Amino acid sequence: MAAAAWTDPSAGSVSNEVSAGRVLLQFRAGRMNWDGGRVTADARKGRVRLARTHEGLFLFQWMERDAEQVEENLIVFPGEATWRRVSECTTGRVYLLEFHTSDKRLFFWMQEPRVERDVLWSRRVNNLLEGRDVNDGVEALSAMAAAVARPQPHRGAAGATVSVQDLQQALQGLGHRLADTASTATTVGTPATEESIVGGEGSGGVESSRQPSPAPTPSLSDVLQLDMHLEQALQQEAVQQALQPFLQPLLPDGHDVRSVLRSPQFRQQMDALSEALLESGPEETAEMIRAFDIGQQGGGGEQRNGLELFLEALVRRARHADEESRGDAHADELGAGKERQRRPHNSG
Amino acid sequence: MEDEESAGWCTLESDPGLFTGLVADLGVRDVEVNEVVTLGDDVEEWLQLSRPIYGLIFLFKHDARLAQPSRPPLAPDATPPGLFFARQTIHNACATQALLAVLLNCREAAEFRIAVGERLRRFWEFAAELDIESRGFAIGNDEHIRAVHNAFAPEKGFALEQTEARRRRARREDAFHYISYVPYGGHVYELDGLSGGPVDLGPSAAADTDTPCRLEPWLEVALQAIRQRIGRADGSEMRFSLQVVSRDPVPELQRRAQAGDTAAQQQLAPHLSKRERWERENALRRANLVPLGVRLLVALADAGAIEPLVARARERERQRIEHARRKP
């Protein structure tokens, strides 16, 4: 099939063909350089291309956007590499191509204009890397992306491409953390690789994430069971303010939050989401957490189910918000977050 | 990758409010669906339903004993002309298909005539020419009918890959068997899309029952067949439901109420509040509530309220598991 494609004279534009075969996937992304301690972005506009040679070899390539000269050209065997988002970098959209068979690691930053579609590109890349059909599961993911890509009034212009300056700034922090985690990695005898970059133990997971959780994982519908405690929480001004901007478009006609929470339909749908998470691997879960804009997944996800990771991401976000709010109040104080102190509840 | 059995059809709840909305969205006017809890032994319950009753839909958790047809199905050349029967080829379409079996067979019969609307009429004209198997595919491939059906379930906002395990579980959970009962040309027919053809239950007036007829003769025949079917379960626990498709009483009551009929005004009120409730429930069914749920979780996290809620949910789950363990 590949041979037919590349010898087809009607294939037209050169960018649709590789000298050696057929383009399977192509998207805009810049490359990054990692020197073992610090990641720096290459500011050039670029593209990532996945192709198959007519001998059947699978190629992962990077080149400048308008150039044909391939700067990075790797032969990848099925299951040999994974494409994943670097969750440490919260502002930039940094991805890592990681080989299981060697130390080779390549960093990229997404330059596609629509940030909410990153998750779809990511899925496609991994589909190809793992030998699946390029669009396997993409439709469902796309529906999810559409569902969550609602206005987010509390954020800035979501969806805008991150500037190189922003990215560099974010990466400086990332570089430090990479160096820190690498030097403090506890695994004896393993060279200080960036094992811990993506989801390593030292990356600030909550305490409970160190070990498989002994407590059973409840369904999200259970967390949102409308009892006295949730009722109290809903009456907090902070909660009401956080909900208010997007409540109306998300509420079905003739309903308020409480009538939705009480409905069997809500319970069913949250149970279905919980079940989907339960059966998700760490990678899929990380994508969901990201698509829902919750924050980041903690480390060591291999031992725990996706629902547990999802709940942990929520708790981590809560603690982060807590620290931030106290950080705002005492701007110069150091060591925020040492003691766990809840923000005073507003009984309003 | 499309699951062949569902072929793009969502599973639906068996609910009278949903069925009533579905019928209206198919373009059929003045038809209501109600669930009854007795099989005719509580005559009062049945007499409260508006008339005429167009058909019954009996559904039960799939069970091999119960699934057997009441009598051998009719061969194609023995089937009365104009009786609509389609083989069920799409698993998830069963509810819509059972409704169509009632609606399309009432489209012209003098006493039961209902306005099925332009779209269903055209579908009927097209499908009438086909054999029973092809009719099933015609329903499955009808964009309009499928869109109306699917509108009662939210788009999958978060679906991950359909794993084989997930598919198998879904199949098991939704294995409800739907059978329609309709009067047609003086006989009563049992229409089961999983069966090889329609079953003739005999003339409308010949119910084999000791008690005198208190309901319409055709209903007695149909209910008798349903009771016999349930009898095969030997009293073992089973889940079933009976839905009655009948004329919507609201337009008539509204007309009379507007003309100053106080009795009609009083009768109308509960009907209208039932409709309002159904509409609210349908709005919930149609909505993708996951974004709201996730936003709520995030808002609770940002306000510092999530941890105790997660802890409580964990505790409840732990107790539930313990409780389940203690039970033999």
Automatic annotation (TrEMBL), chain A:
Chief localisation class: cytoplasm
InterPro entries noted in UniProt: DEUBAD_dom, Rpn13/ADRM1, Rpn13/ADRM1_Pru, Rpn13/ADRM1_Pru_sf, RPN13_DEUBAD, RPN13_DEUBAD_sf
One Gene Ontology molecular-function label: proteasome binding
Keywords: Cytoplasm, Nucleus, Proteasome
Superkingdom assignment: Eukaryota
Residue span(s) of domain DEUBAD: 211-324
CDD domains, per database record: PH_Rpn13
Pfam families for the chain: Rpn13_ADRM1_Pru, RPN13_C
Domain Pru: 19-132
Cellular component GO terms held in the UniProt record: cytoplasm; nucleus; proteasome regulatory particle, lid subcomplex
PROSITE patterns cross-referenced by the UniProt entry: DEUBAD, PRU
Cytoplasm as UniProt keyword: yes
Subcellular location: Cytoplasm; Nucleus
Segments of this protein annotated with the region Disordered: 182-221, 319-348
Biased composition (Basic and acidic residues): 320-339
UniProt protein name: Uncharacterized protein
Species per Swiss-Prot/TrEMBL record: Cyanidium caldarium
UniProtKB/TrEMBL annotation, chain B:
This protein's GO CC annotations: cytoplasm
Catalytic activity: Thiol-dependent hydrolysis of ester, thioester, amide, peptide and isopeptide bonds formed by the C-terminal Gly of ubiquitin (a 76-residue protein attached to proteins as an intracellular targeting signal)
Annotated InterPro entries: Papain-like_cys_pep_sf, Peptidase_C12_UCH, Peptidase_C12_UCH_sf, Ubiquitinyl_hydrolase_UCH37, UCH_C
GO molecular function: cysteine-type deubiquitinase activity
Name of the top EC class for this enzyme: hydrolase
Source taxon at top rank: Eukaryota
A Pfam match: Peptidase_C12
Any one GO BP annotation for this protein: ubiquitin-dependent protein catabolic process
Domain UCH catalytic: start-end pairs: 8-247
Site feature: Important for enzyme activity: D192
Entry-linked PROSITE patterns: UCH_DOMAIN
Active site: C94 (nucleophile), H177 (proton donor)
EC number: 3.4.19.12
Residues under site feature: Transition state stabilizer: Q88
SUPFAM superfamilies to which the protein is assigned, alphabetical: Cysteine proteinases
Iron in keyword set: no
Alphabetically ordered keywords of this record: Hydrolase, Protease, Thiol protease, Ubl conjugation pathway
Family assignment from sequence similarity: Belongs to the peptidase C12 family.
Protein name, as recorded: Ubiquitin carboxyl-terminal hydrolase
